[in-house]
Specification:
This protein is mainly β and about 550 residues long. It contains one helix and 41 strands.
Length: about 550
């Protein structure tokens, strides 16, 4: 199908993104622009000596803190743990800070001049410079602070002052040696041991996944890329090794690893030497996975905890936007996190879908303007809008985006469209936010039928289009093989027209698809738990009595 079928056209960024940029104007300053798909990891190291102060603060106006270690004081006993005012994404030493937020650390006392090294992992658009400012308390006469990016010195300050030197910087990253842009989602793996009494090493090797960073727990290992001290890049199959304990006394301890993995299961081997009553516990992303008794060697398959389900809400009268994160708690589902997104007062903008366009473990909220036809996305993580971009424009408002999926199994997230006037159904294949091509699927001339969810009912790796008839209430599905209909079937009938299917998810993480319903009269939100196309159970979630709130997307 020719993409001009939609009246598709490239154009300058719409007013919506200009509006968003105004919200960020004081936070983000980029020397070059790049899409969210082009983020690169960099090692930032700050070294200080001769500082009499108690506080250091580093703010990035371009770039995102991904992880940081505790400050290493050359004179032990005077350095406190890393703190910060951003949301904590990785417990303990691993932190996630958005643009404009500050990493803060404390050290020393007025009578002590500590020497410290602070290491951070920072993500920044490819080809862009890391910009911001560094604020450190008072320096002695011989005070010195130095900043390196990817092992290249990029900024420094020396001398004394009674104030707080504010080191403005633009750290060029083009000529540095950035960490490889490893595919997958970043996870925190925490290993906790008890009553180990051996000096023998512990070795852990991944058969899938990649170590990105490890905190200081006497880590040694085969380092394939020499990041200074704590920061390691080790490909799958390479072991991380550390030593601990003594030959006579059993000890307790822990080590944190940041791992990127494209699979839902992290696999590998672990080898521990120690006393027979010792044990090793494993957590991934703060969730206890399992506990081992110590043996010579273990092969593991650690199931990575699935992320919570996101509900994205939009208020049709105020322009407010909220999010809920729902997760399983025992045999029920509850809201584990919620908050506000940026407000968009132009009520022509509607949330129409949610996906991970760039395969980077975040959610992209897809918006459509009902006046201009512009289509844009917000890249969102835990309520923070990390980026935004333009996709395309489809002026014909008869065309509706009804969901997202990778119909062609090319590793590309695409958009499914339905024309409410002609009944045509088409598919856009996207590479990130770039339209590759459009494909025609089928025409459904009965305009009472509306696609209400795009999901995988049978968990076979295929895509199912769920249909709801606005007249008789019938609910059916198509199972797709690419852009061809492989099979179809009946699910159920709901006569009350106030009930609308608004999305699909696996709320209970049990390989069942849950259809999410919202009642436009009562504000009730409920789910159907499906086993294939059969209703296994159903349940009540919440009531949102303000009927101006519409559930725009579920992911």
């Amino acid at each position: 199908m020719n993409t001009e079928y939609f009246g598709h056209a490239r154009k300058s960024w719409p007013l919506f993104l200009i509006y968003l940029a105004l919200h960020w104007m004081l936070l983000v300053q980029c020397s070059t622009s790049a899409s969210a798909a082009e983020l690169k990891l960099h090692h930032v190291q700050i070294t200080s000596s001769g500082s009499n102060g108690m506080l250091g603060m580093l703010t990035l106006q371009n770039g995102i803190f991904q992880a940081g270690d505790p400050v290493s004081d050359v004179n032990p006993g005077y350095t406190d743990a890393l703190t910060g005012n951003g949301p904590v994404g990785y417990v303990g030493t691993y932190r996630y800070f958005n643009n404009g937020q500050t990493v803060e650390w404390q050290y020393g006392d007025p009578n002590h001049q500590p020497q410290f090294v602070l290491n951070l992992i920072v993500a920044c658009p490819s080809g862009a410079n890391i910009t911001g400012h560094l604020l450190v308390d008072q320096f002695a006469d011989n005070g010195l602070i130095n900043v390196k990016v990817d092992e290249v010195s990029v900024a420094s300050y020396s001398g004394s002052t009674t104030g707080k030197p504010d080191l403005q910087f633009e750290w060029g990253t083009k000529s540095g040696n950035p960490m490889p842009n490893v595919a997958g989602t970043l996870h925190r793996v925490k290993l906790t041991w008890k009553n180990l009494n051996s000096l023998a090493p512990v070795l852990i090797a991944l058969s899938n996944g990649t170590f990105v960073v490890a905190d200081p727990a006497n880590i040694t290992g085969i380092v394939t890329k020499p990041w200074f001290n704590l920061f390691r890049y080790l490909s799958a199959g390479t072991a991380v090794e550390w030593s601990f304990g003594s030959s006579t006394t059993g000890i307790d301890g822990e080590v944190d690893l940041a791992v990127k993995c494209t699979s839902s299961v992290l696999s590998g081997t672990i080898q521990v030497a120690g006393s027979s009553d010792a044990s090793l516990g494993v957590e991934i992303d703060g969730v206890s996975i399992r506990s081992y008794g110590i043996t010579a060697s273990q092969t593991f398959n650690w199931q990575i905890p699935p992320p919570p389900t996101n509900f994205f809400w939009r208020n049709a009268s105020s322009g407010e936007n909220n999010y809920w994160q729902l997760d399983r708690t025992g045999n029920s589902v509850s809201i584990v996190n919620s908050g506000q997104l940026l407000k968009v007062t132009d009520l022509n903008w509607k949330i129409v879908a949610a996906a991970d366009l760039f395969h980077q473990g975040t959610t992209d909220i897809i918006w459509r303007n009902t006046a201009t036809g512009d289509i844009v996305y917000w890249d969102v993580k835990d309520g923070d809008v990390l980026g935004a971009g333009y996709i395309s424009t489809v002026p014909d408002q008869n065309w509706k985006i009804v969901g997202s999926a990778d119909l062609l199994h090319q590793g590309h997230v695409g958009l499914v469209w339905q024309n409410t006037s002609s009944g045509d159904i088409v598919y856009w294949e996207l590479n990130g936010a770039t339209l590759i091509k459009g494909d025609y699927i089928k025409n459904v001339s009965d305009l009472n039928w509306r696609i209400t969810a795009v999901t995988d009912l049978f968990h076979l790796g295929s895509t199912d289009l769920v249909w709801q008839n606005t007249t008789n209430g019938d609910i059916v599905y198509w199972t797709m093989n690419g852009i061809s209909i492989a099979s179809s079937g009946y699910i159920s009938t709901v006569r009350d027209r106030n009930w609308k299917i608004v999305g699909a998810a696996d709320l209970f993480h049990q390989n069942h698809t849950d259809l999410i319903w919202q009642n436009s009269s009562s504000g009730d939100v409920v789910y159907w738990d499906l086993s294939g196309a059969a209703i296994a159970s159903s349940g009540y979630l919440y009531t949102v009595p303000n009927l101006q709130w519409n559930l725009g997307a579920v992911r």
